[in-house]
């Protein structure tokens, strides 16, 4: 292993996950933290920690100069970016390597090519992977966007070229919508990613969101099958499953093979995810974008394949080849993950930064809780509301849903309102149990299924 001391340039539950993966590999972990995060769990678990700035993310977790200085001052030889913040910032990857450190992820060139959603479409087309009809790359002026939209056909989805996590996205039903919403999307993208570039795609109604997990070492790539993430609120995933029960075997094989083809075409290194829209009525799938980082929902893949994705990406970053061949990877059962956010579901999901009181986490076979909280932890108000992820694994989807319902009933987080009631209601819903949902399912469902506070 080429890495001895790993700098964790992130926070929250993914920082905890990275610290634990590093320790499992015998690597020391140094945790970055802002002034608001001095008490976070990853700081307590890491071998060392260092403050990188004030609470505002722009001055700490997005401050490239401060992060690299901290990594070098603490004797680290590698940097793991986690997800969000600078994880898909090619400039950060370049700066890390220019400082003589290892970036745990793909090369800056790959991030620039595949992290830019418009450029990734072009790479997918070149690799023979079907894409949603859309603009030819980025759209600059309002007139250029209008011309592209007329060619694509309304409704169109306005998307951030450097985006991810559902940010910088709007749907325009008409030319008037496009001119009104594009500036909003551009401003949101600029604030979230430091890049206000936009592109357009045709809206596919009632599509299902399927994504394929891949691993690569720069030469060879494998897939770890797919996940379904169709249950989304405001384009933020709330419930994720592996595998996608809506796919038959032949479609699964074709879809996953296309992901490997694209990953190898760009010499991908590390863990990445290729996202697709799947039209269950026609059986067609379309590549929409690639996330050049570990995903929030990676645990469901780990549960059904037995592969430690975070450890594998650290090994590969250290110079090792992939430790597995495609024929070594198989599916075992069904896994579901739900995101436990500090939000009040009875009050429009308003953030609820409280003080964690009694915390009771169920344990048992097939139950996993990836979290950043502990009793007495004060949730800071400066960042996203994700507290943790509850993951269950069972032999079948039906059994996994039953286990999720039972486990949610035993999960107690006092001191904060959380999204536990949402997930309990979804686990009891007949349509969810039957797998009859799509990316536009959840918001209308919430209007007819009002939730009460946890």
UniProtKB/TrEMBL annotation:
Pfam families: Biotin_carb_C, Biotin_carb_N, CPSase_L_D2. SUPFAM superfamilies: Glutathione synthetase ATP-binding domain-like, PreATP-grasp domain, Rudiment single hybrid motif. Keywords: ATP-binding, Biotin, Ligase, Nucleotide-binding. Residues 2-447 form the Biotin carboxylation domain. Its EC number is 6.3.4.14. It comes from the Bacteria. GO terms for molecular function: ATP binding; biotin carboxylase activity; metal ion binding. Signal peptide: none annotated. Residues 121-318 form the ATP-grasp domain. It catalyses: N(6)-biotinyl-L-lysyl-[protein] + hydrogencarbonate + ATP = N(6)-carboxybiotinyl-L-lysyl-[protein] + ADP + phosphate + H(+). This protein is a component of the acetyl coenzyme A carboxylase complex; first, biotin carboxylase catalyzes the carboxylation of the carrier protein and then the transcarboxylase transfers the carboxyl group to form malonyl-CoA. This is biotin carboxylase.
